[in-house]
Amino acid sequence: MRSLLIILSVLQGILAGDYNAKTLSVAEQDSILNGISEQRYRLVSENEEKIFRHSSVADWYIVDTQKNSRKQLGAGLNLGKVRDAVMSPNGRYVAFAKDNNLYIHKLDFGTEIAVTKDENTDIINGVADWLYEEEFGTTALFAWSPDSKMLAFVKLDEREVPGFSWQNYLGGQYPTADTLRYPKAGCTNAKASVCVYDVPTKGILKMQVNPKDEDVYFPRLKWINETTVMVLRLNRDQTKMEVLSCNAKSTVANLLYTEESKKYFVNYELFDQWQWLTDGRMIVLSEKDGWQRAYLYNAQGMEIKALTPEDMDVMAIYGVNEKTQTLFYQAAPTPSTRHIYGLNLKKGTITQVTKEEGMWSARFAKDCNSSILCHQSFDTPNEYIYSSKDKWNIIEDNADVKAAWQANKLPEPQLLRINNGNGQELEAMLLSPATGNPSPLILMHYSGPQSQRVLNRWRKRFEYALVEAGYAVLIVDPRGTDCRGRAWRNETYMSLGQKEAEDLIAAARWAANRPDIDGERMAILGWSYGGYQTLMTMSQKNHPFKAGVAIAPVTDWKLYDSAYTERYMRRPQVNDRGYDEASLLNKAADLTGNVLIIHGTADDNVHVQQTMQYIDALVRADKQFEMQLYPDDNHFLKKGNNASHMHNRVLQFLQKNL
């Protein structure tokens, strides 16, 4: 094996982001496509302070491009740093939040008004609690009406949600404590409701969207005209998704669309891709027939026809050029690739817009007459291309990033398919150092449901440092992962952990038979769900791994949050056996091999409690292990020098054990 000093330059470059491709923000792309830059007022933020994964507070300013001046949001009410500033469509108002209340800044008068005035911090207006942010991928739970006269928002009441506390050890003679409302599997969630604020009258109306059983989620709001807001409602188990057409003036909600399954979870994220045509018809993305397909619906919620093929997953719908009747969308012809397609709604003909292999994404102008395409692959960092009337012009090619990476002369991945022994093929990719001798193998994975690691994209991470150190790296997507249809995504439904372990073991045994792999020296490495799956795999009989690294692992799903866990496992009250079989606490005696467990003590996502309960079980089972804690750091371990220290710790562990 090569010394740690040899690989430090590659690892340090990766950690420093030297090989991260420059990206064009949504605002920058919209500026090019829709002339956003011509607006008089713009929003900018400074001095950001992170709250959780996506949320932050900052000094937000309204910049007047005509007067070349700026004014701080919240200054009129002495609010200090605020969050989630959103300008109204007419450019006259800015909605924002502070301490769980909503406010509006009126640009015409330079005044500010409080929309809500709840003093109890456990009542949250218009912004996400920890659960909504982490598991529904949003921070702002409010939306402006097209005419800027109404503001719809979700209200969350967390008063009955249990709190989770952790200690902070650094910076004082005594530790301090933080507490977070964190609903775990089967425990009490926040009570959610939907309200609309009328800007002219300053009144708030509660929409009639709550069923008798109020244990529901409202993860999305979408206005389709001046008085109608679509409300997405999910039941607690996320097996039933309803789209409610809500009249913001009368508060009456009518059920427009229902998708329900007794066998699977329902993917609420597909609602983000729905499109409304000017005549009221809808383009709906759904996996109800087994694949994520686009459908045409009428304004009353009745299906007219399926639009896209049934053998590939549509991943995004970009819009419709109503003049040419062309629907533009992104789909996955193979799990590891993405292409852009154009579909003629009248003729049903489909044209593949992009040709070169890799990952293509796009952002279209409002009229869909022009777009910005983004392409990347293993050997190509993000290329941004402006497309209009069949003419393509490169905006950014990241040539400097590509040249810097190529100077390392490291191999690119080889895409593979591996039989798992059950007649199913697993998507995989292999990086193998050109040493001429059999190399020890590191199997890297995430393995969580709906996830993917095997993608033909520009992603230069720790695996390349491992290759520089002389290891072969195999990355595998087991059953339950994405872009292979609904049945594959639900292979692990109600019983997380077991099938993924079988697949990872099968992939490792396949690799051990290759002449370039030393089958006697193999390790497995994963983070978060991947950490969980690493320990689960090493708790199976006759697994082939000498060593394993589990970073921030879940160890018992009863200790993880309600929305994520119940999406794939339902509640412990109805699936107690599934939870028991998926718990590492019940498998400590079965663990074999050398294990390194890493965790941050202030992890708000996967609490260090998970690791503490697991190591207690290991001790009771008389199992030895190695441990690395990072004081006061969270799930991502980026505080101070922690990332570099952790990666070096992992390299030392692997060199010692392989």
CATH architecture of the domain at 413-657: 3-Layer(aba) Sandwich
Q: Termini distance?
A: 9 Å
Question: What fold name goes in the CATH topology slot of the domain at 413-657?
Answer: Rossmann fold
Counting DSSP H or I runs of 4 or more residues, the number of helices is 12
What does this protein look like?
- The chain is of the alpha+beta class and 658 residues long.
- It has a domain at 413-657: Alpha/Beta hydrolase fold, catalytic domain (Rossmann fold).
- It contains twelve helices and 38 strands.
- An eight-stranded mixed sheet has the order 31-32-34-33-35-36-37-38, with helices on both faces. Strands 8, 9, 10, 13 and 14 form a five-stranded antiparallel sheet that branches.
- Helix 1 (4-15) packs antiparallel against helix 5 and helix 1 packs antiparallel against helix 12 (642-657).
- It is globular, with a radius of gyration of 26 Å.
- The mean pLDDT is 95.
Task: Quickly describe the structure.
By secondary structure, the protein is an alpha+beta fold.
Q: Descriptors for this entry?
A:
alpha+beta, Rossmann fold, 5-stranded antiparallel β-sheet, 12 helices, globular
Provide the fold topology:
Layout: H1 4-15, H2 26-34, E1 41-50, E2 56-64, E3 69-72, E4 83-87, E5 93-98, E6 101-106, E7 111-114, E8 123-125, H3 130-136, E9 142-144, E10 150-157, E11 163-168, E12 176-181, E13 191-198, E14 203-206, E15 216-223, E16 228-235, E17 240-247, E18 253-260, E19 275-276, E20 282-286, E21 293-297, E22 303-306, E23 313-321, E24 326-332, E25 339-344, E26 350-352, E27 359-364, E28 370-377, E29 380-388, E30 391-396, H4 399-406, E31 414-419, E32 425-431, E33 439-445, H5 462-468, E34 472-477, H6 486-489, H7 498-512, E35 517-527, H8 529-537, E36 547-551, H9 562-569, H10 576-582, E37 594-600, H11 608-620, E38 626-630, H12 642-657
Parallel strand pairs: 33-34, 33-35, 35-36, 36-37, 37-38
Antiparallel strand pairs: 1-2, 2-3, 4-5, 5-6, 6-7, 8-10, 9-10, 10-13, 11-12, 13-14, 15-16, 16-17, 17-18, 19-20, 20-21, 21-22, 23-24, 24-25, 25-26, 27-28, 28-29, 29-30, 31-32, 32-34
Helix pairs in contact: 1-5, 1-12, 7-8
